[in-house]
Amino acid sequence: MTDLPYATLPIPNDWDRRGLPAWAYHSPALFDLERDHVFLNHWQIVGHECDIPDPGDWLSFDLLGERAVIMRGADGVVRAFHNLCRHRGARVVDGVEGNCKGAIVCPFHGWVYNLDGTLRGAARPSTFGEMKREDFGLKPIELSIAHGFLFIRFKPGPQPAVSDLLAPFAVDFDAYRMTELLPVNTPDWTTELPVNWKSVRDVDNEGYHVALAHPALQELYGRTYRDHQLENGLSMSIGWYGDAPGRGWSVRQYVRHSPERTDLPPHLQKAWTYYGIFPSIVFSMTPEGVQFYQDIPLSVGHTRLTGRTYRWANESRETRLARYLAMRIDRATSAEDQQLSIWSNESMKSQSFEGFHLSDLEYGLRRHHDSLRALLPILTVEDTPEESQIPALNAQMACRNHPPA
C-alpha cells in the first residue's frame, strides 16, 4: 500500500457509535427539511463539459420540484438556467440531453430564447402590451465547473465553490486528466429503489460490508481496501489490486487486461478510488475510466440512483476491454448494494430495531450522519417526534445552536 498525498482524519479512540434514529428514514416532515437544507442548497453534479461540446448542446437536471437546463451558448460558454419558460412555466427542453439548433423554442406557445438565455421574442408579441424582452430571459442557476465537471446549486448554501471544495483531491483529479475525458457510447444510467436516500448512503459510506457482501471486490482488492475521511464532508476510499490473479472470470480477466498507468502517481497505480462529496455524490476512478454517481431523492421512500461514465481518447482495444470488465464488476456490486439498501431501509420500520452500533470500519457513516445533524439538529432527537412539530422543533434547536449575533 502507498501513502496518500493528503491528510485524513483519525478515528477517535472513543466515539458515539449510534446512527440516525429510525424515524428519520420515513418522516415526510423531515424529508421536506432535507429538500431545503441538504439538497437544494448543496452542489449537485450534472455532467461533464464533454457531454455538451457544441453550441446548443444541453443537459437537464430535475431535483425535488426544481428543473434545470445546462447549455453551451453560441459563444462557447456553459450556462445553467431554470428549465421553465417565463410565460407559463413550461419546460423549454424535455428529456435528458439534446441540442437546440440556434435557439431555444418553448414547445407550449413558441417563445424563443437565445442560447445565452435571453429572450429573443414572444409569439404574437402585440398581445402582451408593453413588454421588455430583457426582463423575461430564462432565470439563471448558480453554476460551478471544476476539473471539467458541471455542478449546479439551486439555492445559496454552506459549501464553497466546487474548485475550493475539491482542493484536497486536486492532485489526484489532475493526475487522472479529468478535463480530457470523453463520454462513452451509453454514458448515463439510472435505476430507482423503494428506499429513503439515506439508506443508500449508509451502505455506500462504509467498507465493512465489502468482505462478505461484495465477493468480486473482495477478490479484486479487498485485502487492501481502506476508507478515509476528510474535512468538509469529503471522503476517499481506495483499494489496490494485482497481487492475486483472481478466481471469478470478470476479476481474473480484468487483472490480466487492466492497463499499466505509469503516468499516474504511485498511490493511484493499480487502484480503484472513490471520492465522496456530501451529501450524495461519488466519483469512481479506475485506470481505464471514470464515472460519477449520485442519489437523487424523489420522495421520502423513493430514490433514483444515476450516474455517467467516461473514457480517455485513443484508448486501446485492451483498455476498452478492461473498461468493460470493470463495468461488469461494478454492475454486480451495485446490484448487491441495492439489495442491502432495501433490507436496511425496511428495518427502520420494525419495532424491534434498536438503532445502529457502528464498527470503526463504519466511521464514514457516522461522519455523514454528523454532517446531517449539523444541518438539521432535529436528527439528534432519538424518540419519534410528532410530524407536525418537526419543522418548529428543528428551527428552535437551530436557533439554540446558532444564536443571532
UniProtKB/TrEMBL annotation:
Q: Which InterPro entries match?
A: Rieske_2Fe-2S, Rieske_2Fe-2S_sf, Ring_hydroxy_dOase_asu_C_dom, Rng_hydr_dOase-A
Keyword Oxidoreductase recorded = yes
Q: Which UniProt keywords apply?
A: 2Fe-2S, Dioxygenase, Iron, Iron-sulfur, Metal-binding, Oxidoreductase, Plasmid
Tell me its cofactors.
Fe cation
EC code(s) of this entry: 1.14.13.-
- Boundaries of every Rieske domain copy: 43-152
Q: Which GO terms describe its molecular function?
A: dioxygenase activity
- Keyword check for Protease: no
**Gene3D superfamilies xrefs:** Naphthalene 1,2-dioxygenase Alpha Subunit, Chain A, domain 1, Rieske [2Fe-2S] iron-sulphur domain
Classification via PANTHER family:
CHOLINE MONOOXYGENASE, CHLOROPLASTIC
What name has this protein been given in UniProt? Aromatic ring-hydroxylating dioxygenase subunit alpha
Q: Which organism is it from?
A: Fuscovulum ytuae
